[in-house]
Amino acid sequence: MKRTASAVWNGDLKKGKGTISTQSGVLKQTQYSFSTRFENGIGTNPEELIAAAHAGCLTMAFSALLGAAGFTPDELTTQATLNLEQVDGNWTITAIHLDLKGRVPGIDRAKFDEIADKAKAECPVSRVLKAEISLTKNLEA
């Protein structure tokens, strides 16, 4: 299975602009620029897309593992917070914190945590990233 995305950039780094598109068409010439990446401009940026991919991946992996253990979640939500910092003069993704919340009937805290940790370790996006990845787990009533 292969998934593709493409980017087009015009101009220099600070004044230029670009677009990102995905094979599925969900992103189609979606604007990104220096200001959307390093300031607060309107559009997306690569780091935001990595955070979104990681949140989606963890949530689906957790759902799959819950199902394999005999649990059906009412709702799962994950927020990924990615840190982009200067390290030795280079922009570096230094950490991603995942905040997982779930309403899962019949599960106890220990099992919830065990399955969440396994999902974090097995999620394909977690495995590809070399940054420190942390996870907060919240079982909601």
Descriptive account of the structure:
The protein is an alpha+beta fold. The protein has 2 domains: 34 residues, no CATH class; 94 residues, K homology (KH) domain (GMP Synthetase, Chain A, domain 3, 2-Layer Sandwich), CATH 3.30.300.20. The protein is 33% helix and 36% strand. It has 4 helices and 6 strands. Strands 1-2-3 form a 3-stranded antiparallel beta sheet. A 3-stranded mixed beta sheet has the order 4-5-6, with helices on one face. A hairpin with a 6-residue loop joins β1 and β2. α2 crosses α3. The protein is elongated. It starts with a strand and ends with a strand. The mean pLDDT is 94.
Q: What's the short version?
A:
By secondary structure, this protein is α+β, with helices and mostly antiparallel strands. The protein contains 4 helices and 6 strands; from the N terminus they run βββααββααβ. The chain folds into 2 domains: 5-38, no CATH class; 46-139, GMP Synthetase, Chain A, domain 3.
Output the keywords.
141 residues; 4 helices; alpha+beta; GMP Synthetase, Chain A, domain 3; three-stranded mixed sheet
Record the SSE blueprint.
Layout: E1 5-10, E2 17-22, E3 30-33, H1 34-38, H2 46-68, E4 75-87, E5 90-103, H3 109-122, H4 124-128, E6 132-139
Helix pairs in contact: 2-3
Rg, alpha carbons: 17 Å
Whole-number total of structural domains: 2
Could you tell me the mean pLDDT?
A: 94
Structural class: alpha+beta
CATH homologous superfamily assignment of the largest domain: K homology (KH) domain
Highest CATH level, the class of the largest domain: Alpha Beta
Number of strands: 6
Q: How much helical structure, as a percent, in the residues?
A: 25-40%
- CATH architecture level-2 label of the largest domain: 2-Layer Sandwich
Q: What is the H-and-E element order?
A: EEEHHEEHHE
Oligomerization state: single chain
The name of the CATH topology of the largest domain is: GMP Synthetase, Chain A, domain 3
Low-pLDDT parts are: none
What is the count of helical runs?
4
Q: Label the overall shape.
A: elongated
Strand order of the largest sheet: 1-2-3
Q: Termini, distance in Å? A: 38 Å
Query: How much beta, percentage-wise?
Result: 35-45%
Q: Biggest sheet: strands, sense, closure? A: 3 strands, antiparallel
